Every structure is written in structure tokens, then in C-alpha cells.
Amino acid sequence: MAPLTPDQLRTRRRVETVIRLMAPALDVVLAVGDRVSRIVERDDPEYYPPRVDRGPARAPDDPLPSR
Are 29 and 37 in contact (CB under 8 A)? Predict the structure, then answer.
């Protein structure tokens, strides 16, 4: 990958600063949305939890199977 030009670096810093400043506000929006969704519909009769296939249990020191 080619090195970034000074203009690209400046733009990158500006975008990262905006994201850093907006992050707390976006966290609040997500938290409020979560609470509102829980209050509005406490029980979803059509909700099915996802199935997670963890595969066979193995000891932590077992090497990963080769493919």
C-alpha cells in the first residue's frame, strides 16, 4: 500500500476526531434504543434464539484439527 499524502493524513485525522467525539453520543442513542425496545415489546412470541454449534468439546491444550 502506498504511503498516504499529507492531505489524506489530514482528512484521516479529521474523520477519526469526529468519530471519537461522536462515540459517546452514539453509545447513548444505542442504550436508549435498547431500553425503549425492551419497554415497548417485553415479550416477543416469535423470537427463536440462535443455535450455536460449538462442535465437539476439546481440552484447551489440544492442537487445532488440521484441514
Answer: no
CA pair distance 60, 15, nearest whole angstrom:
41
Residue 40's identity, in one-letter code, is V
Rounded CA-CA distance 47/54 in Å is: 21
State if pTM tops 0.70: no
Average pLDDT, the chain: 83
Q: CA angle 48-56-63, nearest 5°?
A: 135
Q: Residue 4 contacts by C-beta under 8 Å, 6 or more apart in sequence?
A: 12
